[in-house]
Amino acid sequence: MPACIVHAASVHVSPSQDIFDGFAGVRGQVSLTSDGRWIVPYYLDIGAGTSRFTWQASGGVGYAWKWGDASLTYRYLAFYGSGDQLVQTLRFNGPSANVTFRF
Predict the structure, then answer these.
(1) Is 15 contained in some domain?
(2) Domain for residue 3, yes or no?
(3) Cβ proximity of 82 and 51 under 8 Å
(4) Domain containing 53: what range?
(5) 51 lies in a domain?
(6) pLDDT of 45-65, one tens digit each?
(7) Against a cut of 0.85, is the pTM above it?
(8) Closest CA to 70 of 56, 60, 57
(9) Which residues of 1-103 form beta strands (DSSP E)?
């Protein structure tokens, strides 16, 4: 029976950089029906500071109960750093399923 020798090499790289940004944004929801059950939740923020510019937006459709909301939304987040930063451009986007509890 042939012997199998496994050698696992480990590499650890951890450059880090502190980034400080200020943000301003709005969050809310618009009712689609007179009883307020079907809603359109939205979120938007923008920021700057150490980075050149950063922003994110989210919107979708949801349903509200007395105890909370459930929604399906789409989110886009973008970060644009300056030329000397470790991360110069970063973008995330995609759908999300959300549940919000009120108490």
Answers:
(1) no
(2) no
(3) yes
(4) 21-101
(5) yes
(6) 998 887 788 899 999 999 999
(7) no
(8) 60
(9) 21-31, 38-49, 53-64, 68-80, 89-101
